[in-house]
């Protein structure tokens, strides 16, 4: 087999490997279900990055394997030196410029996706998130409830309603992560950080602390319930009623402390 035919077969094999890799990247479901507009943007960015990375990986691997095969040492050549080769300026410019352009394009697109994910909508709901070892609690202010603020250990959100979370920690650094939303934010003691999401799919999804925060880290989980606007209003009314009942009970018992109620009472 002559050198030209070997090169053609190598290029065909590389093209097939690239096609198979790209197809598999779409066929295999790498992530949980998409439950927010930000999740769709993030998954699209992932596929763009994979589609750009697979050809580069295959190209580099093909060149390495082809050179190892074609230019390997033959029997009896153990003491020979290779032929002197001078650098090729055009080739060096090419393999420097093309990756630089590709990286600049990918970084620019990543910035566009990040900007879109964090873009402030015309109207959004404010919800507080408090992290502590080893639990999450969620605060709904009067601007959301239309009355007194309420608190829950389960997160309830109306579908298709932009939300801005205000995150703070009572003790150590945590990470507020909703896999179905594809967004994560570190929750740092002493400051309030913010996190935007627009849930667009009804359902219940896990909330995870994604930073090791102590011996009970694996137990620091909650759920987000994405519901209709009517169901969300019903949840707020039930939480307000429970909070009012707890306050009355406390006053009637002479000011003793009362235990907090859970968000699951709404469901």
Quick summary of this structure?
This protein is 44% helix and 21% strand.
Word description of this protein:
With 267 residues, the chain is α+β, with helices and mostly antiparallel strands. 44% of the residues lie in helices and 21% in strands. It has two domains: 3-71 and 92-118; 125-251, Immunoglobulin-like (Sandwich), CATH 2.60.40. Strand 6 (174-178) and strand 7 form a beta hairpin. Helix 1 (3-27) runs antiparallel to helix 2 (37-70). The chain starts with a helix and ends in a 15-residue tail after the last helix.
Topology diagram in text:
Elements: H1 3-27, H2 37-70, H3 89-118, E1 125-132, E2 135-140, H4 142-145, E3 150-152, E4 155-158, E5 163-169, E6 174-178, E7 183-187, E8 193-197, E9 203-209, E10 221-227, H5 229-252
Parallel strand pairs: 1-5, 4-10
Antiparallel strand pairs: 1-2, 2-3, 5-8, 6-7, 6-9, 9-10
């Amino acid at each position: 087999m002559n050198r030209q035919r070997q090169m053609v077969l190598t290029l065909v094999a590389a093209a097939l490997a690239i096609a198979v890799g790209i197809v598999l990247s779409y066929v295999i479901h790498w992530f949980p279900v998409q439950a927010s507009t930000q999740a769709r943007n993030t998954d699209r960015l992932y596929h763009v990055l994979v589609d750009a990375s697979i050809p580069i990986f295959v190209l580099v691997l093909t060149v390495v394997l082809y050179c190892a095969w074609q230019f390997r040492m033959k029997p009896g050549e153990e003491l020979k030196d290779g032929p002197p080769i001078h650098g090729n300026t055009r080739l060096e410019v090419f393999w420097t410029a093309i990756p630089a352009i590709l990286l600049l394009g990918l970084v620019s697109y990543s910035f566009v996706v990040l900007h879109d994910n964090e873009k402030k909508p015309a109207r959004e709901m404010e919800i507080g998130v408090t992290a502590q070892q080893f639990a999450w609690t969620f605060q709904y202010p009067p601007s959301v409830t239309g009355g007194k603020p309420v608190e829950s250990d389960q997160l309830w959100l109306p579908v298709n309603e932009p939300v801005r979370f205000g995150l703070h920690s009572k003790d150590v650094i945590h990470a507020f992560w909703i896999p179905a939303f594809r967004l994560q934010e570190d929750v740092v003691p002493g400051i309030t950080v913010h996190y935007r999401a627009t849930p667009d799919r009804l359902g219940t999804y896990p909330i995870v602390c994604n930073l090791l925060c102590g011996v009970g880290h694996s137990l620091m989980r909650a759920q987000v319930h994405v519901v209709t606007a009517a169901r969300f209003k019903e949840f707020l009314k039930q939480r307000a009623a429970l909070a009012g009942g707890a306050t009355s009970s406390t006053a009637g018992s002479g000011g003793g402390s009362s235990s907090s109620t859970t968000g699951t009472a709404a469901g």
